[in-house]
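Teaching assistant here, posting this on the class forum so everyone can see the example we discussed in section. The complex has two components, and the goal was to see what a joint structure prediction looks like when all of them are supplied at once.
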Amino acid sequence: MKQNYDEILKHALTPNEEPDFWLNQKILRQVREERKVEKRNDKRLVTAVLAAVLVLGTGSVTAVAAWKHLMPNQVAEEAQDEKLAEAFTSGDAVFVNETQSYGGYDVTFLGIVSGKQLSEGLCISNGKIREDRSHIVVAIENADGTPMPDTSEETYGEQDFYVSPFIKGYHPVDYNANTLAGNYTDVVQDGVLYRLLECDNVEIFADCGLYLGVMDSTFYNANAYHYDEVTGEISRNESYNGLNALFQLPIDSSKANPEAAAAFVENLFFDEGGDIENGEANPEDVIPEGVDKDEYLAVQAWMEQLTPDNIEELAVRVESTVQVLSVDKEGYLNVGPYELEGRGGSDGMKILTSWAFKDAKTGALKIWGCSASGTFDTLRVETFTKNEDGTYTFAVYIPKEQ
Amino acid sequence: MTKLELEQCINEYGKDIYSFCRQLTCNRQEADDLYQDTFLKAVEQREKLDKNGNLKSYLLGIAMRIWKNRKRKYAWRNRIAPVERLVEERDDDVAIGMEASLEDTFITNEEAKVVKSVVDKLPGKMKVCVLLFYMEGLSTPQIAAVLRIPEGTVKSRLYQARKQLEKELENVL
């Protein structure tokens, strides 16, 4: 019988998907073009060296530093985003070229460009297409000159970096690249890691004062910066033993839009992609293909009525997902991976307790989030409970039979 | 890798790599991107390429690492309200039909579709091992080398996956 299944699997999985002819042609063409670009880069380098000599004469070391890096448009080209590369050569792009060195890294803020539909990539968050975006490029390199690992190497990603705009007057724990629907692409060239971050357009906050933080963590690290609750100023924590660069984002304050900023802040934590029943969202844009609309709405209703008080009544705890977690020395909970048959799972997550559980009471369960593909049999609910000994219990619940 | 070598490589392994990308991503657009990036990365790393080694394993290894990084990048964006990927309707029927006549087909196209959907539901790590073993025909030491994990781990994941698949397939076939 076992042999039978082996044969069935082999047969069913026999490679039978042919790549499109034009896809193969595109690869061959791209390789040809990249070779041309390599030659062009050599020429640019000569120009750069000449320019560096001239700038050295005036003594501006910071400005020189940028010449050894790719320009923001080149980084976008490397990330195969021609449209964005073009945007970086437009008059709207701002070049900064400022280097800061902390925690064994040299970080250069290369530039920023903001606007609608500047990239070939499409960002969809909470069922909505995010068109108006800021695109930021930074270069990160080891201060001792050793090359950063290539994105294809196993060691890539072992040291994470978090790049995020901050807004004066808004606590960076709450207002950062994550809440601004951020996304990034890494490109490594000549041992330098270039990070291309995109997030919701921050220009609307230009009159508040904007910063750019670069730190050596996966998410925002509250130990790396200080937030002054009175003045709203954000500053580096000088005693932080690691990377915590902080740049000023040079955006013309005339681009500010206080009304849009206020609306953005108001909607930030309540933006769930619109309500289908009220006609705020088109069902086809939100409901996954093949999912029944009635079931989708029933799942939404189920999630909305779910509270810590009725969770035991509506759902069952999956014991195999339970993890008792201690807070690490940086204040994070490191949740391990889990997988639920047919419902997906998580590769793990890192959560800053001072942010996520600042008002948590001992013994009280907190619903961290619900996830579903629109059906009850894909629904799962992640929860945390703070224990008396300071640990937290993570558990996943699934709905009781519908 | 010269242009000619790249062309040969695409001709020889294109179908294998593309099928793997397609099954891994469950989405044609993402599969196209992954397939393209895999070959471009292989060209970029041409100095590292061991022409006497197993080129197919090497390409599969690149595809795996790109996919892993891509998933990691998108994971945090969707953390608070995770977005499940949309399951794209597959058009496998035609492709399978081209491979062999119905008489020769051991299982029907419909059954093959069911098997693929059951494999899709496996936890990610098991699914990758199953694809490399059954789809790409790699041996367990080769899979261990591609995934850079101990061979014992590969065997254990395959064992667990088989158990789970047998249970599922028993109900549907």
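For the discussion questions: The CA atoms of residues 133 and 139 of chain B lie 6 Å apart. Chain B touches chain A through 70 residues (CB under 8 Å). Think about how each of these relates to the inputs above.
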